[in-house]
User: What shape does this take?
Amino acid sequence: MDNPYERIGGRAAVLALAERFYDLMQEREPDLTALHERDENGAVSRRSRDRFGSFLVGWLGGPQDYVEQNGHPRLRMRHARVAVDVAMRDAWLRCMYQAMDDCDVPDDLRVFLRQRFSEVADFMRNVEEGAP
Assistant: This one.
């Protein structure tokens, strides 16, 4: 796969994907939304949106601004305070998959990214099924 960041359309397209992802989360996944920092209106905060957008830019192969500003992502460590079970993983993936559809990510890139996002989302799980 060529550079996904370039294939998707660069910074503006990646940031639009991140925005759509959070919009969908707020519309459809209240339990997932509740885990995020929110503003005074209950919306996912601008800080959270911008931070994820910056991460996504770098993760997809664009400029590494997130790493320069925040250090290595250490995704599991940074999310350790959040119980990520299969339901939360699946909610996250539903939003990202729909965001990719809504943002017209090219079909071949969408297939590639669905696989990558699925792998990362499953890696983030920290609660075993059936565990209290």
The mean pLDDT is 89. The chain has one domain: 4-124.
